[in-house]
């Protein structure tokens, strides 16, 4: 979903507009989670309306095509659209279930920004009716589902919304159910993985679980909304802390002139040790963001989580120091000739096209501003450079061409496409390998 406010329904404020559900499910936000979810639900012969404010997304999905890269998604979307089980619009329409899957970024001070959740909730409110279910899927700070429920209640005072501690049955059920998928396996894991479903009240949780069991083959564990919210944040913070250990260990190894990749292989021979791979930092829409939601809400109790975030946020700067040393060494041998830098990878993780919060993009951006450097970027999963890399000295090229022309090779992502390069092409070139690609 793009970072634009949702357009309210033309029937805004009219309860009668929602008298009859035109769709079974309305998915608000057709991004990396919303679109696969919409397509998968539609595969169960459930009529789905996908909502997004980006006209490019609407145009693509209406034609049965996709705007993101995810294995298996193109076929599922095409099939659902062809069978008329998946439609799209720029505003919500009446449905029985509303899934909200919009961005939840943080502000400059690391405070959570729920403006897109609020916009989505207010766009849904006019078409709600008694018996509907609203589920927030966006990764959110603790208390966000209750806040969304309050926004809905303020917009629709004619309906009864749940409050924590209620034992009755509300007019509209409200719950939280975060995704827990691995990009590249989203279409599989949305179905196979267990889900944690938290309701504002137990009745809300059970109503949501009934819906998710229609397409989820994993277990649907029922809890309250706050526990489900913190569960999602805990999962990603656990990953962040473990990656931070690997990244910090790489700094320590470099200090002692020890090969980090050999060190990790040897340490992991211990039966109870499993150190992750270090890298240039941490990216993606979850792990690089979600721990701050815990820190902002419980700063005194989350010192380790904060430190892990700071370690991972520092790693790109450390990589840039290494690259600058290599640039200086190149200049010492080739004089005033431009230093040609091959940057391998921009995505936040291997074999996806997702550049969100990617440390590789940040590093490449800084390198485009290094005096006397040409930056040759090899990213096989995109067709054009992102806006921040639109510089005269930045060029998107094939990996073989990048290696052939480069004086310095900087490995930032371990794409499968890079594993099979001719190692002879690296002869005589300076290398900064943050991923142990050719180890």
CATH fold call of the largest domain: Rossmann fold
| Count of helical regions | 14
Topology as a string of helices (H) and strands (E)? EHEHHEEHEHEHEHEHHHHEHEEHEHE
Query: How many strand elements?
Result: 13
Percent of sequence in beta strands:
5-15%
Instruction: Strand order, main sheet: write it out.
Output: 3-2-1-4-5-6-7-8
Tell me the name of the CATH homologous superfamily of the largest domain.
NAD(P)-binding Rossmann-like Domain
Number of domain units: 2
CATH architecture of the largest domain: 3-Layer(aba) Sandwich
Rg measurement, Å: 24 Å
Structural class: alpha/beta
- List the uncertain runs: 1-21
**Overall shape:** globular
Provide the CATH top-level class of the largest domain.
Alpha Beta
**Average of the residue pLDDT scores:** 93
Question: What order do the helices and strands come in, and which of them pair?
Answer:
Layout: E1 23-28, H1 34-42, E2 48-51, H2 55-62, H3 73-82, E3 86-89, E4 95-100, H4 115-124, E5 133-136, H5 144-155, E6 173-176, H6 186-192, E7 195-199, H7 202-212, E8 220-224, H8 225-255, H9 260-267, H10 290-297, H11 303-334, E9 339-344, H12 359-368, E10 373-378, E11 394-396, H13 399-405, E12 408-411, H14 416-419, E13 430-433
Parallel strand pairs: 1-2, 1-4, 2-3, 4-5, 5-6, 7-8, 9-10, 9-12, 10-11, 12-13
Antiparallel strand pairs: 6-7
């Amino acid at each position: 979903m793009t970072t634009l406010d949702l357009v309210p329904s033309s029937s805004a404020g009219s309860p009668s507009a929602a008298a009859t559900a035109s769709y079974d499910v309305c998915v608000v936000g057709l991004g990396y989670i919303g679109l696969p979810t919409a397509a998968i639900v539609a595969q169960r012969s459930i009529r789905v309306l996908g909502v997004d404010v980006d006209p490019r997304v609407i145009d693509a999905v209406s034609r049965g095509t996709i705007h993101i890269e995810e294995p298996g998604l193109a076929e599922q979307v095409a099939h659902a659209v062809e069978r008329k089980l998946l439609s799209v619009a720029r505003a919500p329409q009446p449905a029985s279930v509303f899934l909200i899957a919009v961005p939840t970024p943080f502000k400059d001070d690391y405070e959570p920004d729920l403006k897109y959740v609020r916009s989505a909730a207010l766009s849904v409110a006019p078409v709600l009716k008694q018996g509907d279910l609203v589920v927030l899927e966006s990764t959110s700070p603790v208390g966000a589902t209750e806040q969304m429920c309050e926004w809905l209640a303020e917009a629709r005072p004619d309906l009864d919304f749940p409050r924590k501690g209620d034992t009755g049955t509300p007019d509209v059920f409200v719950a939280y159910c975060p995704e827990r998928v691995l990009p590249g396996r989203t279409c599989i894991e949305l179905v196979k993985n267990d889900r944690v479903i938290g309701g504002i009240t137990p009745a809300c949780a059970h109503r949501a679980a009934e819906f998710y069991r229609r397409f989820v083959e994993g277990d649907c564990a029922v809890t309250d909304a706050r526990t489900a919210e913190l569960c999602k944040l805990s999962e990603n913070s656990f990953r962040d802390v473990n990656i931070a250990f690997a990244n910090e260990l790489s700094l320590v190894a470099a200090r002692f002139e020890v090969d980090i990749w050999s060190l990790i292989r040897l340490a992991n021979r211990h039966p109870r040790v499993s150190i992750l791979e270090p890298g240039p930092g941490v990216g993606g829409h979850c792990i690089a963001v979600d721990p701050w939601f815990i820190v902002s809400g419980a700063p005194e109790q989350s010192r380790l989580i904060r430190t892990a975030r700071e370690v991972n946020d520092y790693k790109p700067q450390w990589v840039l120091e290494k690259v600058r040393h290599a640039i200086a060494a190149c200049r010492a041998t080739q004089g005033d000739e431009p230093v040609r830098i091959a940057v391998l990878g921009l995505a936040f993780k291997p074999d996806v096209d997702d550049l969100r919060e990617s440390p590789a993009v940040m590093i490449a951006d800084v390198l485009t501003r290094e005096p006397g450097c040409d930056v040759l970027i090899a990213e096989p999963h995109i067709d054009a450079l992102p806006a921040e890399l639109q510089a005269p000295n930045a060029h998107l090229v094939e990996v073989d061409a990048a290696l052939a022309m480069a004086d310095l090779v900087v490995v930032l992502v371990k794409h499968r496409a890079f594993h099979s390069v001719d190692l002879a092409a690296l002869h005589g070139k300076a290398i900064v390998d943050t991923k142990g690609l050719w180890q």
